[in-house]
Amino acid sequence: MRIGFALIFATLLAFSVLGKRDISSNKFGSLEVTQEFDDIVEKEVFFSDDSLYFDDEVRSDFLMDSIDQAKVHMNTNLKETIYKCKDKDWGSKEEFQFLPVFVGSLMTDETVVEYEGTCFEKMTFTMKHNSDNSVKVSIDARKKKSTFCKEALFLSTTMRHHVEYLFLERTHHLTLKNLDDDDIIDLNLTGLKMYLFCDGVMDSFISVFNTAKLFLGGLGDNPKLPIIGSHVPEYMEKANVHFIKEAIGWDMQKRDVTYVDLDESEIHDGDYFAITRLDGLDEIIMWGTGGRTGHSTVALWIDGELHVIESQDAWYWPKHNIQRNTYKQWVEWARNCDFNVAILPLRDDLRAKFNNTAALEFFETVEGMPYGYHNFLFSWIDTVDKNYPPVAPKELIPIVLDIFAQIMPATIDTFFTQAMNQRLGTSGLNYRQVIVEAALRNTTMLELMAQPELDGWMYSDGYSYVCSCFVVAIWKAAGIFGDLEINAVEFTPKDVYQLNVFNTTAAISEKCKSADPTLPYCQILGKYRMELNGYSSVDMYSHMNENCESEYPDYIRNDGC
């Protein structure tokens, strides 16, 4: 697949020499080939075959861009300014500075959309289907309002996205290529949607949009599953190690030993598996929470055999949903997808307290239920403004979600809207209806998101547990929290390994000591040493992790957390 894309690039490069075309790559991973004439701009957009979620190269570039964007945003905050549109005609009220304007949808070859923008008094949009699974979008921009203004347009189908900047009075022809049959069906059904931004916030919007899309992963209405291996490419590994150092200040150290064959008898019920994969998604979770892991599993002995149980839905993992696998099978798969894994042993008193029968009974009630996409964000988001990574203003988040709600309504219903309905005590409200209902209760969307997630909420497909929340739910069922009131669905991976439930002076196998002399636990897998900040340092208390800050760059827990 990637070879084919390289051949396209080489061919285009040859044509560029002859035809004086400009070739570039945009922030959505597509190639753009541009040729300018006196009154016309011809641009071909070659969409990548892989989405951001699956394409390691695109995701690697995204991580590097995120660091740069965060620096811009932090500098803006230090100056106590806000991202504003450069064109004063956009509007003077602060709450309108971020808003994209919905221009219209191009549904058929006969559709004509006309709109007055912030820079051009008259813009006319049309679309034509070509015979080679491509479409040609024409934008005629006329009557410019000022010399240095420009328009920023966001064009989107369910799975394809493009940003186009308009500066000169010209006709712009955009030929969108590499569309497959599913794209054409989607285009005929929902059309090409167009949004107008002011130039001042477009980079921030793209950054938040790509971050959201990375989290959504394979949840899209038309997921494109590539045929690729599950190992992390070397360039992706290096990009993530660099990103982690820049983003959270953790300089990951390479290990000489990458596999420790730990005897199963040394692993007990309730022992926690802290996991990091250098794939881009774990690292964004780490950036948001200040933690050093992105995935969680837990050990459970079943019928005399050691199992690893977890909530899992990664594209590279052979099984999905809440599941059990024998330890041997799990380690084989974990090695194949380049997990870094440390096993954290429970304290002796809690190990004695752990009720295997109760834990297994609970597990069997949820086994096979889907991964917890419904509350993926909400173990992390506890406050209105003290949990977000510095990639862009928090005010952009509801706007990005609104756009996703229009181009991916089923996805946003799963990923976000059902959880908001739970908080409101409503059912079936769509994204915009949720906003209205919250406003009637004098609650903003950010305030609604910060409300605690509660154990026992039943979603459309069952209870909802992400990996770390599932581990805590198993511990809760096993009785290690006693009479404390704990909402398992409020725990991030960092919250789990910082919980004071582990034996920090446990006897470590000699083979583990030899591989990692400085670690107080055994790391069985990985090229990089799992040094867990704040390991086993936070005492248990009722309603913990429901209203806790985790703000970049120090991620200090506020009083009471």
3D architecture notes:
The chain has helices spanning 2-19, 56-78, 181-190, 202-216, 234-248, 281-289, 327-336, 348-353, 356-366, 396-407, 409-424, 431-440, 445-450, 467-478, 493-498, 510-515; strands at 22-25, 31-36, 40-46, 101-106, 113-115, 120-129, 135-144, 151-156, 161-166, 171-177, 192-197, 272-276, 295-302, 305-312, 321-326, 340-344, 522-525. The protein is elongated and about 75 Å long. Mean pLDDT is 83; it is low at 1-19, 50-54, 76-99 and 216-228. It has a seven-stranded mixed beta sheet with strand order 1-2-3-10-7-6-5, covered by helices on one side. A hairpin with a 4-residue loop joins strand 8 and strand 9. The longest helix has 23 residues, at 56-78. The chain has 16 helices and 17 strands. The chain has 561 residues and is an alpha+beta fold. The protein starts with a helix and ends in a 36-residue tail after the last strand. Helix 4 (202-216) crosses helix 10. Helices cover 33% and strands 19% of the residues.
What structural keywords apply?
elongated; disordered N terminus; single chain; alpha+beta; 561 residues; seven-stranded mixed sheet; six-stranded antiparallel sheet
Distance between the termini: 48 Å
Shape: elongated
**Average pLDDT reading:** 83
* Count of beta strands: 17
- The percent range for helix content is 25-40%
What's the helix count? 16
In terms of DSSP E residues, the strand content is 15-25%
Radius of gyration: 25 Å
Structural class: alpha+beta
Q: What's the story with the biggest beta sheet?
A: 7 strands, mixed
Model regions low in confidence, pLDDT < 50 over at least 5 residues: 1-19, 50-54, 76-99, 216-228
Strand order of the largest sheet: 1-2-3-10-7-6-5
